[in-house]
Write a structure and sequence with these properties.
7-stranded mixed β-sheet, 23% helix
Length: 231
Amino acid sequence: EIPKTMDAKADRDPPIDISDDFGYSVESLLIPSHYNGMVESVMIPHGLIIDRIERLARLIRSDYEGVTVHLLCVLKGGSAFFQDIVEALRAIHRLTTQSYIPFTFDFIRVKSYSGTQSTGNVQITGIDMATLAGKHCLLVEDIIDSGKTMSVLVPHIEEHAGVASVKVASLLEKRTPKSVGFKADYCGFTIPDKFIVGYCMDYNEAFRDMGHICVISEEGIKQHAEGVDEA
């Protein structure tokens, strides 16, 4: 049985630590031309993201052996991570044999950001909690910043949904003094306290289309302070 807990396993697979001063030059990798001057550096290239996700998928498959895990994609930022982890799980399942359905999935919206800041005011929409009863749920999130969102969302699901278990897979965890101490059960990378964009993570809806995870520049913040110009 998968234990029901909001705490990360003590023996979780160590995430890759991105040092505070690390970054690839924007001249070394492909950045969409409409973001010229708006990115300070590339923190995590797309290829490294995918490789790390494939390892996380293998760990999830092993931990939930014999159990149908219900993936809960946290929209919108988590959608790219969710899509790629589902594809990695499908690749594993195509080459293995099982007598049960390995995973199902659903979507949830959790609002906690305004501009570059995590507000701590969490709004949960998009799902009937009753449909999660008895399921082993795995929340798929893009980034744990302060941890305020997950520290509210996880106990909310535990208390109101009657789940068999609930765990968290986050692509990123930010090292920040604002952290409330929440840690994911599965984590791809720990990153410095910088505002990052790309790989479906946005600044006022911009940068979602960029494949790499990058540090936004002051120019990028200025250009998209009022959102995306659709003209």
